[in-house]
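Side project, low priority. Logging it here so it doesn't get lost.
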Amino acid sequence: MDRLTDELRRKIVTTLNLEETKPEDIAENDPLVGGELGLDSIDILELVMMIEKDYGVKIDNRELGAKVFATLKSLAQYIREETPGAAA
């Protein structure tokens, strides 16, 4: 596992106050929306704001958001692509 993915796991749990979920429960390839986490559009909006604030990365349209938030892996990959100095 890489540092960015682990960091995102922790931030998802804390940002969304997922009290019943541990960071390690979030698998890289599980769907973030509609999966076991049960994230909805409001949750994604909160995550978009956190990502913009913490990483300076914008997700400014629905089509891009659907692609980026498909899985934890796709989210980490997008942040890496958009931030050259992102954690490996």
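Brief comment: The chain is about 50% helix and 0% strand.
Revisit when time allows.
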